[in-house]
Fold this sequence. Notes:
Blueprint: H1 8-15, E1 21-25, E2 31-36, E3 40-45, E4 50-56, E5 83-84, E6 109-115, E7 121-128, E8 142-149, E9 153-160, E10 167-173, E11 175-178, E12 194-197, E13 203-206, E14 220-222, E15 249-250, H2 257-260, E16 270-273, E17 277-281, E18 286-289
Antiparallel strand pairs: 1-2, 2-3, 3-4, 5-10, 6-7, 7-8, 8-9, 9-18, 10-17, 11-16, 12-13, 12-14, 14-15
Amino acid sequence: MRSGSVGVDDLEQRYGIPDAVRFEAGPNGLTRVVVVTPQAEAQLYLHGAHLTHYQPRGDRPLLFLSEQSRLAADAPIRGGVPIVFPWFGPKAGDPSAPTHGFARVAEWSVESATQAADGSVELVCCLDSAMATHPSWTQAYSLRYRVAIGSLLELVLEVHNPSEKPFAFEEALHTYLSVGDARQLSVTGLADTTYIDKTDGARRKVQGPEPTHPRHGRDGSSLSGHASDLPGGRSGLGTAARGGEVGPRGDGGLEPLDRQGQGHAGFRRRRVARDALPRDRQPGRSRRDAPAGPAPHTPSRDPQ
């Protein structure tokens, strides 16, 4: 059963799990789901189905949330794991459309909340064209988002086309990972891949064997599905992605440090992992994309 537009008390009654899943009113009345398991704890807002917190037991939070995030119904949440759909970045031909689509500023419904024998929890949230759309997007669609919270964090986004005609879309789980100091961060796993260099007229270049560093002024998108590791002040922290065709994959949003400025409060503590993939969805077909992460890690040794 899907929750639809119901209050916190009804959500708690339908889907709450004692000592594991709690629904509460967060800042500015946004509905927040608080999950506590033997392996980790997490927080997710139904506004955008936005995961803002994931912390394994004995470790620090692995997701970055900006102190400037308004946490309001009329604005996207800055940090955590925003869901990008159905377009990435500005909408071509419509500068008034919301950047990164409308899914991240829509109120999602709850389909289920379940607990496994080991205490881990799975939340499933849904969004469809009857709940959220935009004049620039006329296609019927439905999204199903599965969030599994345990010793690993697994995020699975499914896109379904219920109509009689195909449509093209872009989607991403635009993850913000917390790091010790972005100036000391390096990204590996992209050797010999082609990327678009936004600092050099969007030219296509080939990444050499050396790690990528934000202090080198790199701002680009790799055209490869390779995974990447981020040692940057955190030992053994990594990400992995599976389930999608090869498409534009961000190298981590490593903007030149002098461009991040005061508009990016806390930028030294965050790293963006983009996975923006253009898709075609045929009538009556679904697409299941499952970036899984963070990958297994050892306890953080970030500086205080």
